[in-house]
Structures are given as C-alpha cells and as structure tokens.
Design goal:
The chain is an alpha/beta fold. The chain has 6 helices and 7 strands. Strands 1, 2, 3, 4, 5, 6 and 7 form a 7-stranded mixed beta sheet that branches. Strand 1, helix 1 and strand 2 form a beta-alpha-beta unit. The longest helix is centred in the first third of the chain and has 17 residues.
C-alpha cells in the first residue's frame, strides 16, 4: 500500500485523521498561500488545497498526499487567518449574530492523478458582546484560524447553529475524505 501523507501543519487535521485510525505522516507544504480573489470561494479553497498537495507530492511521488484548506465566507467576503488583533476583532464582530459559511477544500494527489472537492457548512453565531470578543482574543485562540475562531475549542461557545459537516468546520471533511481516499489505494 502507498504511504499516506498529510500536507498540512494543522494539529486539528492531524487529530481528525488519527481519530479514524489512518496511518500517515505529516509533511508541511511550504507554499505561500495566495489566490485569485476573482475565483468563487469554493474554487479558492480547492485551489489552495491542490497547491499544498502538489508541493508535497514533488518530493513524494510514490505516496498519496492530502492537501486541505479552510476559508470562512461572510456576505461574499473571504475571511482567512487574522493578521493581528484588530483584524481578529473585526472578523468576530462581522460574524456576531450572523450566518457565515465555512468551506473546506480538499485535494488528493498521487502520481499523475489528482482530485479535488469541497464541503460547505453554514454556521450561525450568537450575538457576541465586546467582552466576549476581547476575552477570546486575549486567549490567543483565534490568531491561527480562518475567520478568527475554532469551533472545536472555546469558539464553540459562539455557535448557535450549524448546518452541514462539523468536521469540515474543524478543517477537514473527514468522512468524505476517507471515502474519496479509497479510490487511491
């Protein structure tokens, strides 16, 4: 069986794959995450995932590589990871009391073959107070997460409703990823 590699440094994606008892190693992609803002959000997520997987595949031709990228979209605005505290505050205030979409793009690459797909999940936040936002930002948790929050940690307290794949919001649509992987082995 071909070795499986996760092309991501995300501890959350690693934990998800470990949860389903897959044997894999982690090799972090070194690409600079840039995208064409004219693309649809779904295309952006899949394109970034493919760039990551192809980057790691260059040095690992005999392996199956999983690349993933997660973005948050509110009213057509793509929210990546915040650059600083001010941007994190802005994003959380934007999401407060509203519904946004979390899109996780996945790419699977092996040799000359690749496939991409995405999952899109609607997440509704409670109305957040300035104190809740300040406390959360001081925790440091939002600084490495798209949209400035993580649903699997303290950020879960902000979530009123979710419609779609919870694991996609965490960072990897787990069930679909494993199902799609089967065709590569």
């Amino acid at each position: 069986m071909k070795p499986l590699i996760l092309a991501s440094g995300s501890p959350r994606r690693k934990e998800l794959l470990q949860q389903v008892k897959l044997s894999f190693e982690v090799k972090v992609s070194t690409i600079e995450e840039t995208f064409d803002p004219m693309l649809d959000p779904e295309e952006i997520a899949m394109n970034l995932a493919l760039q990551k997987a192809e980057d790691v595949a260059r040095e690992n031709r005999e392996s199956v590589i999983i690349g993933a990228d997660t973005i948050v979209v509110h009213d057509g605005l793509v929210l990546g990871k915040p650059k600083d505290v001010d941007e994190a505050t802005y994003m959380l205030k934007l999401l407060s009391g509203n519904t946004h979409y979390v899109i996780s793009g996945v790419a699977i690459v092996s040799g000359n073959r690749h496939m991409t797909f995405f999952e899109k999940t609607a997440v509704t936040f409670w109305e957040l107070t300035d104190e809740e936002i300040d406390y959360y930002i001081r925790s440091g948790e939002p600084m490495d997460k798209a949209g400035s929050y993580g649903i699997q940690e303290v950020g879960a307290l902000f979530v009123k409703e979710i419609h779609g794949d919870y694991f996609s919001v965490v960072g990897l649509p787990l069930s679909r990823t494993v199902r799609e992987l089967k065709s590569f082995f």
